[in-house]
Design goal:
Largest sheet: 7 strands, parallel
Helix content: 40-55%
Strand order of the largest sheet: 5-4-1-6-7-8-9
Shape: globular
Oligomer: single chain
Radius of gyration: 23 Å
Distance between the termini: 23 Å
């Protein structure tokens, strides 16, 4: 059934453009149990809305006319907002966008999100498994998979209700792989696209999944008119998986849209007073006359932060002339701390950083400045003072940090970049490239980058910045829409 005020353009993603917290609480993370919203004579707690950013938010703002964003409630505040609004959020909270938020059963959501999306699909596409021990696809996994199916079905139902006849629907990412096929069954009139923000595993690794699950995932995406990826490499891997598991290449059109950085926003935002304040603090912490290696990441297993720190330690060990002359500013913002393996990884990052400081530090020099509290203004301040940007993921769909730092750097920076980052396809020619597993090679790359001459660094930065901003978020979104 089509809604009375149906939308011509729809976006579906796990996280929406706004999140809510109950007054006195932090905005929600992922998962969590639902609350009862208060009862009796107690006044209902106030809701605090926090708008998000990113390519989708920027892209959808470029669309004129009827557009709806369908997303999931992530925590207690979001669920309370759904209860108060019926799921159609107040445009005053969303920057004027029409948003439908789904209050999916908290257990179903948590199981689908943590049990399958983040603990299986993310691990497959980023090739993170320790295969002597994992994965184990047993009866418990099948229970979790049923939750993933239910979660995807909730999105398909909502999109079917909200979409006008012949509307365009852009489904986002690995959380919602089954939605295109489910939505096609419900509404064959729609034009459906699916976009993968992660890498796509090659067939030999994708085959870790049970055969029926692998085929179900592929057929889910093939329910779309068009499947799109961040790089040609990931698109080719998807096509190869279809040929391998389904016996033929996809009939669905396959495209590539390499999301770029928003240069105008970043350059303007990085010159605001709050960034200048943090820049002054960082400079004082670093000390005068020192080179600066910057990394800004979530403590996501694929980001390879520990090996980056080990490479820096090897640099200080093998090239003692850098001692006292360089500081590694490492921002490692905790991610997915409801999963034990992520908590352990975050703790290991902190341990290695402290070990380097204890081994090499002096009264006037702290080799590693580690921050774990998310602060966007401080990240931009670090971007500005970077002499070297270290981006060494094990595997990454794109990695926008690699694109953002050259755009913001005050004096130009040398980019040390993993060949396994999607950004390598566009930036590799002007970066110092590394194998992310090769700690010694990364240490040598850091040495090369630190020793790069001012003129060469400035010229490389100019070319990196041009490539990084070639497909800004609004155009990236509109290109996908136009392709449908």
């Amino acid at each position: 059934m089509v809604a009375e005020q149906a939308a011509r353009i729809l976006v579906a993603s796990n996280r929406g453009p706004v999140s809510y917290s109950l007054a006195g609480q932090e905005p929600p993370g992922h998962g969590g149990d639902g609350g009862d919203g208060g009862s009796g004579a107690e006044p209902a707690p106030a809701l605090v809305a926090k708008r998000g950013g990113g390519g989708l938010v920027s892209g959808l703002s470029a669309v004129e006319g009827d557009a709806v964003w369908v997303c999931a409630a992530l925590g207690d505040g979001d669920r309370e907002a759904v209860r108060r609004t019926g799921g159609h959020l107040d445009p005053a909270d969303t920057g004027g966008q029409t948003v439908r938020m789904l209050d999916i059963d908290p257990d179903v959501f948590a199981t689908a999100y943590n049990g399958v999306a983040n603990s299986v699909l993310w691990f497959v596409h980023h090739m993170l498994y320790q295969t002597p021990f994992e994965p184990v696809f047993d009866a418990e996994f099948r229970r979790q998979w049923a939750a993933y199916e239910a979660y995807n079905a909730a999105f398909a139902d909502a999109l079917a209700e909200e979409a006008a006849e012949g509307a365009a629907v852009l489904v986002q990412d690995y959380h919602l792989c089954l939605v295109p096929g489910m939505l096609r069954e419900r509404r064959p009139d729609l034009r459906i696209g699916h976009f993968s923000h992660t890498p796509w595993a090659p067939p030999e690794y994708f085959r870790l999944l049970p055969d029926d699950i692998g085929r179900q995932l592929l057929r889910g995406i093939l329910g779309a008119d068009r499947a799109a990826f961040l790089t040609q490499r990931w698109a080719d891997a998807f096509t190869a998986c279809c040929t391998d598991l389904l016996g033929e290449p996809p009939a669905t059109r396959v495209g590539v849209h390499g999301l770029g950085a928003d240069a105008d926003f970043l350059r303007e935002r990085s010159r605001r007073p709050d960034v200048d304040e943090r820049l002054a603090i960082l400079r004082e912490q670093i000390g005068p006359g020192r080179k600066v290696i910057v990394r800004v990441d979530r403590t996501e297993l694929s980001k390879n932060i520990v090996r980056g720190l080990l490479a820096y330690r090897e640099l200080l060990t093998d090239r003692p002339e850098w001692r006292g002359r360089v500081v590694h500013v490492a921002f490692a913002y905790p991610s997915r701390q409801d999963l034990a393996v992520y908590r352990d990884y975050t703790a290991e990052v902190a341990r290695v950083a402290e070990e380097i400081n204890e081994t090499f530090g002096t009264d006037g020099w702290r080799p590693v400045i580690l921050h774990v509290e998310d602060d966007f203004a401080r990240s931009l301040a670090a971007y500005r003072l970077a002499d070297v940007a270290l981006v060494n993921p094990i595997r990454d769909g794109m990695n926008l940090v690699a694109k953002e730092i050259p755009l913001v750097s005050d004096e130009g920076c040398a980019l040390v970049l993993s060949r396994e980052a999607g950004a390598y396809e566009e930036l590799g020619e002007d970066a110092v490239t590394v194998n992310p597993y090769d700690v010694s090679g990364t240490a040598r790359a850091l040495d090369t980058a630190l020793g790069m001459g001012t003129a060469e660094r400035a010229e490389r930065t100019k070319r990196l910045a041009a490539a990084a901003s070639s497909l800004p978020p609004q155009r990236w979104f509109l290109d996908q829409l136009n392709a449908l």
